[in-house]
Amino acid sequence: MTPTHPRPLSPHLTIWKWGPGMLVSILHRVTGSGLTVAGLGLLTWWLAALSGGEESYARFSSVIGYAPAGIPLAIIVLVALTWAFWQHFFSGLRHLVLDTGAGYELKVNRFWAIMTIALSIFATAVTWFILLGVGR
Q: Exposure string (b/e) for 84-105, b if CB count within 10 Å is 16 or more?
């Protein structure tokens, strides 16, 4: 049996105005996927290098950048993974608060969405400041 009138269509991307809340929600999914794929790949490589002996671990360390002949691209990937971790972490905290029913007011939601991005950048900078031992 065919309905006599068409069903309403769900709103699509052309209807919605982009905002920080949407960006943070999408970033949460992207960073979670990125951490899963790239982070687990890097962790697996590190564990394999550890079990492979000194030569294997020295090769891993030189590629990652902890040795003098480190590849800058690897450092960029590590910084990106660090940012992805902090972005996913702060976004997860934001979603946890939203799950309690708080923070849905437009101004509050926008503020915490922007703070999620700002805090992730700040935490990444602090993390690498500590890791590189700057200021010692």
A: bbbbbbbbeebeeeeeeeebee
